[in-house]
Each structure stands twice: as C-alpha cells, then as structure tokens.
Amino acid sequence: MQFSVLLPGRSVCAMGSSCHDEVKRASGLASRQAVVARAEAYVQAHLATPVPVSHLCHVLGVSERGLRNAFYGVRGMGPKRRMLALRLQRVHHALTKACAAPTTVTHVATQYGFYELGRFAATYKLAFGEVPSATLYGTARRSGRASSPDKKGHGDVCSILQGRREQ
Predict the structure, then answer these.
(1) Helix (H, G, I), strand (E, B) or coil at 88
(2) Which distant-in-sequence residues (6+ apart) come within 8 Å of 115 by Cβ?
(3) For all residues of the chain together, what is the average pLDDT?
(4) Helix or strand or coil: residue 14?
(5) Which of 50, 66, 90, 141 has the fewest other C-beta atoms within 10 Å?
(6) How far is 39 from 59, CA to CA, in rounded Å?
(7) Confidence of residue 137 (pLDDT cuts 50, 70, 90)
(8) Which domain holds residue 35?
(9) Are residues 105 and 136 in the same domain?
(10) C-alpha distances out from residue 58 to 9, 39, 49, 137, Å
(11) CB neighbour list of residue 2: distance below 8 Å, 6 or more residues apart
C-alpha cells in the first residue's frame, strides 16, 4: 500500500521517491502531449508549405531534441515523418474527392508543398499502394472508393512511413 503526506511544496511517500517519479512521469507525458498537439495544430494550419523542424521549434519554444522526444513518446515517430504523413493524407483526401472539380496531381501535390513530383509519387505509392494518378483517375471512374485487399488505406500512412528513416 502506498500513501503520501503532503507538506508545503513537497510530497513525501511511504514507498520512497516512487510517488514523485510517478507525478514527474505523468506531468512529463502531459507536457509532451501538449507540445505534440500544438505542433500538429501549427502544421495543420500551414499544410501548404513544408515546415522546417527548426522553425517549428522556434514557434513552440522548445529545443529540437525536446520536440523529437515528444513526438517519439506520443506518436512513435519523429516530427518530420509525422508532418509528411499529415500532408500525404491531405493529398490523398483531395485526390479521392476530386470528382467535384477537375484537377491534376501536380496541382494537388504542389498545393500541399510537394514540389519534387517524382519523389512525391514514390512516397505516395509506398503509403497508399498506388500512384497518385491512379487515385485521381480511379476516383473519377468510381462513385464510391472500394478498397482492394492489396492496397493500403490512408489510416496506414503513419505506420508505413514509420518504417522509413527520418530525413
């Protein structure tokens, strides 16, 4: 059984410093979650351009190591990989909803900050199991998106990209 006695400014536990460690661990997790939430909100607001990690750190007021540790602790991947996954998910969504207005893969990709189109297409194929043009033209041919067993859904983007090295 563990209990603690509160003293002004401190907590003393019957089991030694384990209470303090638990409080520290819980507040550390909450702090990391808050940093990740603020970072993701900033990235979501600026999806049209790739946000450098150094700029994100400056905006959030944390070190690069602190930001990286927060992302690994909360998301299991670094901030660059998470930002890439968010942008890819947005492109995928835009390409699957492109029936309403005619568009091109180039237009959608550059709208979300992908300017190296060959690299973008390769990364997109790795994440979704098809090239971006197949998503765009397949959407135009089908009224509903039927997913085949050999294709990966957009929910898998983070786990697919997690296997790639941080760039």
Answers:
(1) helix
(2) 109
(3) 77
(4) coil
(5) 141
(6) 9
(7) confident
(8) 18-80
(9) yes
(10) 32, 11, 17, 41
(11) 13, 14, 15, 18, 19
Q: Residue 119: inside a domain, yes or no? A: yes
C-alpha separations of 167 from 25, 71, 154, 163, 164 in Å: 29, 15, 21, 12, 9
CA dihedral 48, 51, 57, 63 (to 10 degrees): 150
Amino acid at 122: A
Amino acid at 111: Q
Taking only Cα atoms into account, the Rg of the chain, rounded to an integer number of angstroms, comes to: 21
**Residue 127 and residue 149 in one domain:** yes
Distances (CA, A) of 61 to 2, 81, 128: 37, 20, 34
Residue 121 identity (one-letter amino acid): A
* CA 117/CA 29 separation, integer angstroms: 38
Taken in order 122, 126, 129, 132, is the CA torsion positive or negative?
negative
Q: Is the pTM of this model over 0.85?
A: no
DSSP letter string, 15-77: TBTHHHHHHHHHHHHHHHHHHHHHHHHHHHHTTTSPPPHHHHHHHHT--HHHHHHHHHHHHSS
